Amino acid sequence: MTPLAPDPATLRGLRLFSGLDAAALAEIVRSAHTRRIEKGTTIFSQGDRAGLCHALIDGRVKIVQTGADGQQLVVRYIGAGEMFGTAAVFSGGIYPADALAMVDCVGVHWTAATMGELMERYPRIALNALDIVGRRLQEVQTRLRELSTERVERRVAHALLRLARQAGRRVGSGIEIDFPLSRQDIAEMTGTTLHTVSRILSGWEGQGIVEGGRQQVTIRQPHALVVIAEDLPKPAKPEVTPKPEK
Amino acid sequence: MIAPPSPCATAALPSSSDFVEDVLERWPSTIPVFLKHRMACPGCPMARFQTVAEVADDYGLDTDALLDEFARAIAAAG
Question: What ipTM did this prediction achieve?
Answer without folding.
Answer: 0.77
